[in-house]
Amino acid sequence: MSSLLPRLPRAVVKTMTYSVMHLTVAVSVAYALTGNLAISLGIGLIEPAVQTVAYMLHEDAWRRVASKDQVSNVEPGPYNA
Q1: The pTM is what?
Q2: What is the pLDDT of residues 31-61, one digit of tens each?
Q3: Structural domain tally of the chain?
Q4: Which residues form the DUF2061 domain (predicted)?
Q5: Which of 13, 35, 36, 58 has its CA 20 to 30 A from that of 24?
């Protein structure tokens, strides 16, 4: 594994290690709350997928806000007054 890491871009390695950390935290918190390893693993695997969709929706909402800000910052002219 160590011979593979130097060939991968730093961002890829960072993303992989963050994913492992995220999974570990999600499973640990779920286990602390439920005391059930099977449920905890299920939550730990499902939560990142749900979070990914939520992130995409969040980004889309912010993109729309930015688009509206750009339109509202346009100086009035003969065609956009």
Answers
A1: 0.61
A2: 999 999 999 999 999 998 999 999 999 999 9
A3: 1
A4: 12-62
A5: 58
